[in-house]
Amino acid sequence: MKAKLIIPKQVVTVNNNNDVFVNHAVEISNGVITKIEPVQNFVLSEYEVLNYQNYVLIPGFVQTHIHLCQTLFRGFADDLELLDWLQKRIFPFENSHNKNSLRISVQLGINDLLAGGTTTLLDMGTLRHQEVIFEELIYSGMRAFAGNCMIDQNNLFSTFSETTDWNLKASYDWAKSFHNLCSGKIKYGFAPRFVLSCSEKLLKETKEMMKDFPGSVLHTHSSENKNEVETVRDLTGKENVEYFDSIGLLDDHTVLAHCIHLNENEIKSLKNNKVKISHCPSSNLKLGSGVANVPRFIKEGISVSLGADGAPCNNSLSAFTEMRHAGLIQKPIYGPTAMDALTVFRLATMEGAKALHLEKEVGSIEVGKKADFVLLDLDKADQPIQMNEQSIYSSIVYSATKENVKAVFVDGELKVESGKSVIYDEQKLTANGKNQFEELLKRVN
Ligand code: GUN
Ligand code: FE
User: Fold this and answer.
1) Which atom number of ligand 1 is nearest to the Cα of residue 90?
2) 193 shares its domain with 178
């Protein structure tokens, strides 16, 4: 089989120099980038040439906090604060999933993510039927960390819970079945939901269990909402991150979503333990949770990457929406120079890769990395006039949407072409989603 040769208008590498190449082609063999050189260095007849001369090549986005199981509930949990949102809507909905409703929710989520240029994700899973999420991730060919969401106590919605032993055994078994599957493209992310739904035994034994699965991560929510943090304080006598630290949960394989309400000691702890923060600005705005101090985290050298969270608290899953909000949300507080476009773009790509310890594989367009990338049409009347690198980053972070995504590759395989999924029939997805959600609503109690 001939190697592929992608010829774009520009290559936005996100390498250490933030190089942007023009008149360059990218050679792909067996899903890996093998050369990035001036077009004239290649003998075109030796390749399967993919001509994208009007489009800009960027790395696929890496989103580090997603709930695929919630996509079906988009628009049915609006205008509530976190604990009400969970109690009145999300926990009853998730509790009512059967395999069919979960499957379509995951398909809708994957379809939306890929269409918006996300090629790698960290998913929080759900309590039951976790195998469906893995099956759909594998079918789609996305790069993913996922794991069974663990809940062994639930004061908000008591039926959405299983015993501690069930949770531990289920996670262990799923990890054994799925960690490092598909040549390592699928990895396990242990997913205790948050302090309010997890016993200390569950949290500690989960951390212990991870030793059997090198390369896995621990993924949970922390310090998202003031009422949540107060309840954690009442239960544990500690702040959220201090509690995690006290039970040995924090290290460089821990990904904490949100991290809004923190004291100085907690910021120090995140830094010292090299914890990865997944910043979810749209979710934080919509649930009225607050604004994470991302400029401070970056200054401290703490890892920050981006996540859309779930569709019902956003309601988009697009990395473009997250980038725009990640930039804008800080400016009224820290001034307009905070969070420039390139910094934000790096959070959505290379920093996401680093958070998942995939920085040797994805996050930038460099020789030796996986061919996970996106082609954008930025020559549009609603975009900045394309003159230089400034225009590209400005487009990507402040103006572009998933409408500008023309093609998406994972492992050198085409997933979106001419802005359309090559995996799913979107009309069927929508119709199936409607049927399944109607059925699910009948099961909610
Ligand atoms: N905390 C616990 N569960 C959730 C969830 O599903 N979404 C968000 N945003 N926060 C949570
Ligand atoms: Fe979440």
Assistant:
1) 6
2) yes
